[in-house]
Amino acid sequence: MREPSFTAHISQGKPHRVHSQNYRKFFLIHWASVIGAIAHLCFIFLFLAYDHPGLAWLNVGGVLMWLGALLANLRGNHNQAIYLISIEAYTHAGIVTVTLGTAAGFHYYLLPLSCLVTLSPNMPKWRSLLIGFLGMLEFLALERLPDSLLPLPSGSNLPSIAATLNLSVALSAMVLFAMLVRCVYEMQERSLTTMATRDSLTGLFNRRFSSDYLRQVSIQQQRNKSPCSIALLDIDHFKQINDRYGHKVGDACLVQISDMLTRHFRSSDVLCRWGGEEFLLIFPGTSVKKIMPVMESFRQYLHDNPTQHHGEQIPLTISMGVTNLPPGIPYDVVINRADHLLYRAKAEGRDRIICQHVESRRGQAEYGHQDDMFEDGDHQQDQHP
């Protein structure tokens, strides 16, 4: 199966009104809004149970504010969501703390929420910082609030463990918030890596990654001399497919062949879209002799399974050049050799494989031309129907 691209991940995980570059912050605000609404719903029953109906009604309004922030965030209005969250959180913490005192511990929720309100992607940084620092200042002011200003005895008729529970929840929220940031960061890092190393259409590795990989294999071969084979294949008459059926069908053929390659070969094999309708296959630890039966079975399978388009069969065949990567030979020279074999296959009738095992019997510095760098080794053969 092809790996979905970063944009595919985003399109599946966000509302259409949310811009892709804002997805990370949308994600965090979304889940904070959900958790905030649930927490205030629980507070309603808590305050009713301990005979504080006024505070229960305050939390009814709090639930509505958090749901409003959730809706605004889903619509892409991230600033509006942050304003609703900060107004509700700062107001709630102030009223409940002034009513019940600091012993109840509801002002501790200002700590994670002051961090959350800095996330709006479209708000100027100075404004986000200002709103966050206002939350911290409110926390410090409430923490030092004298009992003489309280209308009720501090922590009135709430369990003595209430402050500990609220502090635990607030600190847990901060840890969860940090973990969500980490998860989203790692998700985007993986997506960026995929974008840098994968072809966006087929999901196979791209040319840059494969070139870097071959360079590393060449270096490793200087130490362990392990075999490595490569195959360069090209779809026969692909331009005619594009001209007759359109580029959309041509792209579908590229995707189909890519999926077939992924199913046919090992996960340790490196499959690359080299450019256009060309594919480069790298088989580390495998000789040309061992890989040839697998390549021929793939060629035959593709030959026997034409693609379908509106009830019409479109024959898909490939021409292929297969060779090995000898120690001491630059990988780009080996690719050129595979390209030469590929075009021999095309010149000799297409839908065939030409392979050649090559060896270097002279030092690398002595070679000035590609043809001088190879001498026929174990075998050279054609594979065709």
TrEMBL record:
InterPro entries recorded: Diguanylate_Cyclase, GGDEF_dom, Nucleotide_cyclase, Rev_trsase/Diguanyl_cyclase
Residue stretches making up the GGDEF domain: 226-358
Coiled-coil ranges (or none): none
Keyword Transmembrane: yes
Renumbered residue ranges of the record's region Disordered: 363-385
EC class (word): transferase
NCBIfam families: GGDEF
Protein name according to UniProt: diguanylate cyclase
Species of origin: Halomonas huangheensis
Lineage: Bacteria, Pseudomonadati, Pseudomonadota, Gammaproteobacteria, Oceanospirillales
